[in-house]
Every structure is written in structure tokens, then in C-alpha cells.
Amino acid sequence: MEDQFQPDAIIIGTGLAGLTAAMEITNAGKKVLLLDQETEENIGGQAFWSFGGLFLINSPQQRRMGIKDSYDLALQDWKGTAGFDRKEDYWPRKWAEAYLKFAAGEKYQYISKLGIKLMFMVGWAERGDGSAHGHGNSVPRFHVSWGTGTGVVKPFVEKAYQAKEKGLLQMKFRHRVTGLNIEHGKIKGVKGDILEADLKKRGEPTSRNVVSHFEYTAPHVIIASGGIGANHELVQKNWPERLGKAPENMVCGVPAYVDGKMIGIAENSGAHIINPDRMWHYTEGLQNWDPIWPSHGIRILPGPSSLWFDAKGNRLPAPFLPGFDTLGTLKYIQETGFSYSWFILTQKIIKKEFALSGSEQNPDITNRNYTLFMKRIFGKKAPEPVEAFKEHGKDFVVSDNLKDLVEKMNLLSGNRLLDYEKIKAQIEARDRELDNTFSKDTQVNYIRNTRNYWGDKLGRVAPLHKILSPENGPLIAVRLNILTRKTLGGIKTNLNAQVLREDESVIEGLYAAGEAAGFGGGGMHGYRALEGTFLGGCIFSGMVAGKYIAGL
Q1: I need a surface site. Which of 71, 81, 96, 283 has the fewest CB within 10 A?
Q2: pLDDT digits (tens, 9 = 90+) for 171-213
Q3: Pairing mode, if any, of strands 506-512 and 220-223?
Q4: Does residue 78 sit in helix, strand or coil?
């Protein structure tokens, strides 16, 4: 019976974008074949490991928290952030506008009908460069799924298995696509390798030993295979000069299967790949003390209070503050000649402000445990995974006094770049700014401002206090590494998610969605992202591709 299954569409990749497209196509009674080089254990892809942040505009959660948001304000923020300035940005602009309309309209109902629940507090990510018209979110828009990334992925996985039970969907894992069959400008199907079975746990690297080959036909093929984040060779090859020299050493924020190979295969078949130099990597990466995949890195999602120093002990200037301007800070750090930097903070700050990206690092939210979540908000310690990193992580040092802390920082970095007196003078200067209710220190002023938003005051931003006062200790230093994550460019598509050639003609029957398409159009984020837009971009682009095929 399986051999008689003739799909209307083949989808490459069982991540969030692919699963969304499959749901839309099978909802219309059409048949789908899902292919993935990984094991069934990895269904849901990279989204499973995410913190589960979703970007929404004028949501019920925002309104309940007194946040006034609108499509126009979000468009202002998006344009100032994206910085579209290329001829190739025609379709990315169109996708950005369409996505914002989705985020301000249908998106909330779309995810709610699937059973995705959002937490009551709205986070304020990428707070920006300090200008109204420039980069950053003017208001909080980061909605965390109650269940993190696992909660976002779960309903789409369930829909796939329901469609399978109805005979509308087949899944073939360990099927790695190596080529697209195109004849006379139309897609005919795909071919590739069957990899040997592997019993590794989710996220662990699997075998690439080939045991056989396959070839399948269908009139429609969707590439939803993800980006290049785990392929450091491609990351370094595409690294733009505007971000400084590419780091020689980076920690990896995604599993090894995020290799970007399908993007190259699409290009060899005539697809136009645009904006490959646009990428989204983080500056607050930690070496995971309990790794799952190679060079496994975890990102700190920081509140705004930690003092940020470069490798030579210079405090970073505004707007390069924690949680403000990811790529601006990355460029600044790379121009120092070193690919790491430091946070210096107190126990009061780490308790209130440190969250770690990743579903596995947030058991309270992932497992929907209200008791644990209340401990996160009101407990005396940081969440258990954060405390575990503080105790076991290679990048953490703790001390009751600054001199000893700086000595330990130098030992950790293996050099003598940090001068105790220099760092002490900078922290003392900042601490003196707290003696009045007004200040000239941008970071101090911003902390005072952000605590006017009660979501930050309740659960995200520590009360202002002097770093060097003993009652606020112990002192903590964290070495921050560059962490690879997202591909912002990719396969160029029109607003039907159809893949385009360089001359704008359509490769009939070929589509792209998710990170492989730069989340839409070949890079709907432009140069920078507003956060919470990656999972949403996968859902939206997968939905668009699926609905278009379903309607044919």
C-alpha cells in the first residue's frame, strides 16, 4: 500500500515550516510525503529546542499589560531594523509587510485554534539602538509559549500523525535529498540517499552512512530544510566584512543537522539565493557543560543590568547593552580583535535577569509547572538550570571580592588582559550614579525606565543596586562566546512561496519555506531581527506554501 502512495506534494524537512505546510495541504484532502535526513526522534526540528518566543502585534496579552501596539508602530520598527537597501530586497520587503499583517491579525487566532497557549507576561527583546526610527522594538512583543518550543511544535506534530492515520501523509525519515528532478522548467520530484538506522537521542549527531537510494515524484516540492547555523564552514564563508573578522571559534546554537546543504542543492537547480551574508548570531553564548550536539552552546537571554566589558576590560558603550542591539554588539566585539567578552554582575541580577534559551533549560515553562515558575519569579535563587551553569559552566567565575574575581577571569581566559584597578574604577563610577534619582549613565537611566513596565519590574529586571556593595553579592563574571544561530538570507520566493530564478521567473512546482527561504522571500528580516519572529516566520511561510498548494 505504501508503494501505491502518490503524493500531491513532497516536503523536505520535518521542522516547524514543513509541518505547517503539511497540515495545510492535508487539511484540503491532498496527500503529502514528508522526507527528513534525521530520525523520527527529531521530528519538529530546531524549533523543538527553542525558547518558544512568538512575535505578536496588539495581542490580548499586550493589551492586558497596558502595552499600546499597532501595525504602524511595528512596521516602523521592522523597517528601521531590517535596513532594506538592495535591489534583491523587493520580495523580502513584500514578505515583511505580509508577515506583519499576519502578526497583527490572523496569527493569534491561528495559533490559539491549535492549542498553543501564551504566558501572561510579554517580554521586551531587542530593545534597540536608542532611536525611535532605528533598530529595535519600541514596545514588548516577545510572547513565550506556555511549553516553550515543545509547546509550539506539539500541535503540528499531532496534526501530522492524524493525517498519517487518515492515509493522507507518509513520513520517511533517514531520507536525505541530494537532488531535485526538474524537466523543462518544472519540478518532477526528488532523489537522494537512504541513511542507516540510528538510535541516538533527539539532537545528538546521527550517522551519515548510506545504505540505499530513493527517487520520488510529485508535482509540488517544498524545501523546508532549515539554515546553515551548524555548518561553521558556510558561516565563515558567508561572514560579512561589516561584522568584523569571522570568529575562528564559535559555540553552536543548533544541532548538527542544520547544515544548509539543501540551499546549495536548490541553487544548483536554478533557484536564486539572495542575501547569504545576512545572518543572526548571538554574543552571549555559553559552552554547555552538559552538551547534546557538537560545540553545543546556550544563549543567555539577559535583562539589562549586567555590566558588559570587552576582552580588554573596557565597558561597552550604549547602545551595546544587554538585550539591546545584537548585531551592533557583535560588530563592536569583533573589532576589539577578540571573539569573547564579559558580563560582571551580582547574585541579585542573575536571580532576576538570567534566562537561558532552549526548551531543555526551562523545565518550569516547558513542563508547564506553575510551582516551579513561581519559584523563578519569587525565589531566592536563579532558576535551577542557571544555578547549574553558575556551578558547573566553564564560562562562570564567582567571588566575594572584585580583585579575586578579576584574577579568576584572567586565569579563565589564559591571559593578563584585565586590569583590576581599571575595572574597579569603571564599576565604582557606575555605582556612584545611583546616589541620585537621575543620572547621566545611559544604562542606569534605561533600567529606571524599563521598570516602569510592570512585566519587567515583576519578572525580568532587578532593582537598581550598587554592584560592589557586599550585601548584593557574590560577584559573578561570565565569559560570553559568539554563538551561531540563524540564517537571514536564503532562497528567493514570491508571495506564494514559489521559488524564483535570478530573472524572477518561477520554477514551476518548487517552493521554499522557513529558514531555507530566509523565513520568506529570501530574507524578510533584512539585516537584523526583532526576535520572536523566527518561529512565527516558519509558521507563516509554511502556511503560505501549504495554502497555495492546497488551493490549486
Answers
A1: 71
A2: 999 999 999 999 999 999 999 999 999 999 999 999 999 999 9
A3: parallel
A4: helix
